[in-house]
Write a structure and sequence with these properties.
The chain is of the alpha/beta class. It contains 3 helices and 8 strands. The mean pLDDT is about 95.
Length: about 150
């Protein structure tokens, strides 16, 4: 089975730029040799008024082909509530790695992501249960965690 993750957003190209760096993905080229996804959408009959003003860069792919493709679908309304689904970026090494080793790995990734435009929302620090994670928001406010 093939699948992709679809994330509703206001500015697809802005989120593509952020998440490409965050996930170490790349922009997915448009099909049929067209210069942009916008051109592809127009070629399949999507009305221009539904496409907004974005430049048509709205999809990511894993260069290694292992992870799912991600489509940032433009929608007119802003995000208003907490996500019902979120991404966990697993950089710490898992619970078999001591928290004292995971914490600096997580914190380094958080620093990298905030430099890219993420915002820290809070942390989950429970050393008694061997858990450490940081919750962030991407440039449009979508929550995700670094663990």
């Amino acid at each position: 089975m093939d699948w992709q993750l679809v994330i509703d957003c206001r500015e697809p190209s802005r989120l593509v730029a952020f998440w490409a760096e965050a996930l170490r993905y790349r922009a997915q080229p448009p099909p049929d040799g067209l210069p942009s996804w916008r051109d592809w959408y127009l070629s399949v009959g999507i009305p221009p008024e539904e496409l907004g003003d974005d430049d048509g860069i709205d999809r990511l792919e894993d260069p290694a082909g292992a992870g799912p493709r991600i489509w940032f679908q433009a929608v007119p309304e802003p995000k208003t509530v907490k996500n019902r689904l979120h991404i966990d970026l697993k950089v710490g090494g898992g619970r078999s790695v001591p928290v004292a080793e995971r914490r600096p790995r997580v914190d380094a990734e958080v620093a990298r992501l905030t430099a890219l435009g993420a915002r820290v929302l809070g942390s989950m620090d429970d050393p008694d249960n061997g858990h450490y994670a940081v919750q962030l928001a991407d440039p449009e406010g979508n929550e995700f965690c670094v663990v």
